[in-house]
Structures are given as C-alpha cells and as structure tokens.
Amino acid sequence: MRVTVFSAQPYDRRFFDELVESRPVDAELEWVYQDAGLSAATVALAEGSDAICVFVNDCLDAEVLEALAAMDIRAIVLRCAGFNNIDLETAHRLGLFVARVPAYSPEAVAEHALAMIMTLNRKTHRAFNRVREGNFALDGLLGVTLHGKTAGVVGTGRIGLCMARILKGLGCEVLGHDPYPSDAFSAHGDMVSLESLLARSDIVSLHCPLTEQTHHLMNRETLATMKPGAMLINTSRGALIDTPAVVAALKSRQIGALAIDVYEQESELFFRDHSAEIIDDDVFARLVSFPNVLITGHQGFFTVEALREIAQVTCANLIAFAMGDDCPNRL
Predict the structure, then answer these.
(1) Which residues lie below 8 Å from residue 303, measured CB to CB, with a gap of 6+?
(2) Catalytic residue positions?
(3) How many CB atoms lie within 10 A of CB 62?
(4) Per the CATH hierarchy, to which homologous superfamily does domain 2-104+303-323 belong?
(5) pLDDT digits (tens, 9 = 90+) for 35-69
(6) pLDDT for position 26
(7) Going by C-beta distance under 8 Å and a sequence separation of 6 or more, which residues neighbour residue 265?
(8) What is the architecture of the domain spanning 106-295?
(9) How many other CB atoms sit within 10 Å of the CB of residue 202?
(10) Which of 22, 84, 128, 302 has a CA 20 to 30 Å removed from the CA of 103?
(11) What are phi and psi of 309, to 5 degrees?
(12) CA of 197: how far to CAs of 21, 150, 153, 212, 247, in Å?
C-alpha cells in the first residue's frame, strides 16, 4: 500500500521507518514523505497513493476530500488525536476510511504542561539567560510555592487525569470540570462547575477537545470570572482560547501569566523555521511581547514514547483498512 505522508518532519520519517524495519508485516506499507501540508493546492502530491497520512494542521475540507476521492484514495489516517480539521460528513458520504490515534502517552502532554507551569512560576527561562550573561541578580525572578495552591483541570480525560495526579503530587488542591465526568478523578480532586473552578483556581489547565461547545471556551466573559492574577495553561487546541480576549486580560492584569503550546492560527507558523522571516501575525507578536507569557510550538506530544506509539497505531489503522478488519480507531 502506497501512503503519502503530508507535513512530514524528520522525526516522522525516523519513527515510521524504524517501525517498518522492526516489523516485517508493515513492510507492505510504502511511505512517500511530503514536506508540504495538505491543502487544495497540494492535494495533487497524493496522486498514485492508496492512502494518505496527515497531522493536526492539514486541511481536509470538502474540496480536498473530493479531490482525494477522485484520485481513488480510499483511506485517511491521522497521526494525532484531534480531528476538527476534517469534514467528517463529507468523508463518510464519499465512503472514505478515516482513523486517528485516539490517545498516546498522555503523560507526555501533562508533563509538558507541568514544565510550562514551573517555568512561568519560577522564571527559569529568564534566569537561564541572565546567568549566561553573568547576571546573578534575583530581583524579578520571584515565584510562589505551588504547594497549597488551587489548580483547576478543565477536561478530565486521560491527559486531564494525568495532570490532576501530578498537581496533587505537588500538594495542590485540585478541582476538575468536565461535562462527562470521570469517576477516576475523585482520587485526585473534586469535580465542580466551570464557574467555580475559574473563580477558585490559581492555575487553570485546559485538557479538552475542540468542539462547537469548547470553541473559545476562554473568552472575555469567562476570563473575567477567573481569580485575578491566575495562570492559564493550554496544551490542547488553540481555539479553546479567544486570543485577543486573552491579550486584553493580560493587559488589564486579570491574568497573571499565560502558557500556550497551541495557538488558534498556528497552521501558518508551527512546525517550520521562520527565524529568518518577518512574522506578520500581529496578535502573536503582541503575545510574545509579554514577559509573563510562555509559548512553545506544539511540542507537548514530542517524546520518544509518544512518537513511537503514534507510528504503531497509525500503521495498525492502515493494515486494518487493507485487510478489511474492524478498526477501533475509525471515525
């Protein structure tokens, strides 16, 4: 089976090729790597393939799906959990096989969220640069002790549960909110309404999928109900946050600190080197100007264990399609 991999990075090649070499059954998969992301302008790169493999910022709207079907491509595998970038209704109408990687190393994302919290709180990123310049002054690096603080986890799925367990281990009082509560969360904290969580939490960490209900979950109204000076963390999907509203909340000091590993307009920025270019996204430029904002480029998933699991599940999904077997990850 010939599979075109869009938005392919060196690490994608490494882990897919490593898997093929270690498991002869997967040798039937021929990988064709494309640096370009999938869009109406690049869909022709998949010509001659039986399936495509895509990532979070690839575009799979009706136009692209129609073009894939016209090329007799019957399978789409997402090497990620989120699928808000695909028009599922059109995919089903065209009879396309669509499968994802529903969960992979949830600890990886939760640990990255913790790293962002600790970095912002103790300002280790600023301290690192100071010391390299011979500046050992502590003024401006003051943090708080997280033990005893209240931390809110919005979304109590696998990643949210990992985050709650970590925060409890730090000695935080943990609050959770989810329209579909997890019974397992009770071992780590208390489930409360979103309003109560925002009003009481010193740290709010988002771990929910992007849906119509969660789009701009953190907006002008909800940000105003947060505990003044609280820290907001987002390692889930960029559009959970209304970015201009967050900028306003930072300017008014309603939010004390912001850490994001995802950004609503990230498709034009992330996973590429733009260091020699002028970034013309004014909202992003405003965000990076704040000393109390920390941004990473969608690297929460980026561990050896997670990438290995992504490759394994993606291959299993493709083989299930090829063999006509049931696929538990099909959408």
Answers:
(1) 105, 108
(2) 237, 266
(3) 13
(4) NAD(P)-binding Rossmann-like Domain (3.40.50.720)
(5) 999 999 999 999 999 999 999 889 999 999 999 99
(6) 47
(7) 238, 243, 281, 283, 284
(8) 3-Layer(aba) Sandwich (3.40)
(9) 20
(10) 22
(11) -70, -40
(12) 48, 9, 8, 21, 21
